[in-house]
Design goal:
With 218 residues, the protein is an alpha/beta fold. It has helices spanning 14-25, 53-67, 90-118, 138-157, 187-198; strands at residues 5-9, 29-34, 44-47, 72-75, 121-125, 163-169, 172-173, 185-186, 208-211. It has a single domain, classed as 3-Layer(aba) Sandwich (Rossmann fold), CATH 3.40.50. Strand 5 (121-125), helix 4 and strand 6 (163-169) form a beta-alpha-beta unit. Helix 1 packs across helix 5.
């Protein structure tokens, strides 16, 4: 893998942490970002609130100062919110929108120049909730925005050699998300899908992966 660099936001747990482990096994240098840097394991650990663009710029600069390049960006940071438009705290809802929507935009913008220079790969975490509306779910609405943003980014990067992949998981057992399904997906399942997409040859761009547990109905 030489000195290729894999940057992951939301890397302290769940899908982000699982992807970091597999990327390290594949030989990548890691740049791992989360709001709590003390929870990050391995690689270059950087405290970053993805809803703060200055933090994102600083994250990219730290990566470039340390390694001189960025080859894969996994825009993975995201948070949930209770279903029902009268449920939960409105301030928490506002922060979720900033994290899930603006945070993805900010990651794309902050890393775009570095990705063009390496003809790299942008991977974005959405959800099956970004393809079908869930009753009372503002979270679902944010993931619809992310799904659209991934295609908009693909078009924006077209002709530069940068590839774009949207990962849309179904039910995944991760911190903060629980499911009644007997055998949901694991974070490792999604991480394998991410590594598969980025391992394809440069002329092949896997634009979207939708992955459900076998037992999930919809």
């Amino acid at each position: 893998m030489d000195d290729r660099v894999f940057l992951i936001t939301g890397a302290s747990s769940g899908i982000g942490a699982a992807t970091a482990r597999l990327a390290a096994e594949a030989g990548y240098e890691l740049v791992l970002a989360a709001r709590r840097a003390d929870k990050l394991q391995g690689g270059l650990a950087v405290r970053c609130d993805v809803s703060d663009y200055a933090d994102q710029e600083a994250l990219v600069q730290r990566a470039l100062d340390a390694y001189g390049r960025i080859d894969v960006v996994f825009a993975n940071a995201g948070v949930g919110h209770p279903r029902g438009f009268e449920a939960g705290d409105p301030e928490d809802a506002r922060q979720m929108i900033l994290t899930n929507v603006f945070g993805i935009y900010a990651t794309i913008r902050a890393t775009a120049k570095a990705l063009r220079e390496t003809r790299g790969h942008l991977v974005i975490t959405s959800s099956i909730a970004g393809r079908r509306a869930l009753k009372g779910s503002l979270y679902s609405a944010t993931k619809f925005a992310v799904t659209g943003m991934a295609e908009a980014a693909r078009q924006d990067f077209n002709g530069t050699g940068v590839r774009t992949t949207l990962i849309s998981p179904g039910m995944v057992q991760t911190p903060g998300f629980t499911h009644e399904l007997e055998d949901p997906l694991t974070a490792d399942d999604i991480a394998r899908a991410v590594l598969w997409a980025v391992s394809q040859p440069p002329h092949m761009d896997v634009n979207e992966i939708l992955v459900r547990p076998t037992a999930q109905e919809s």
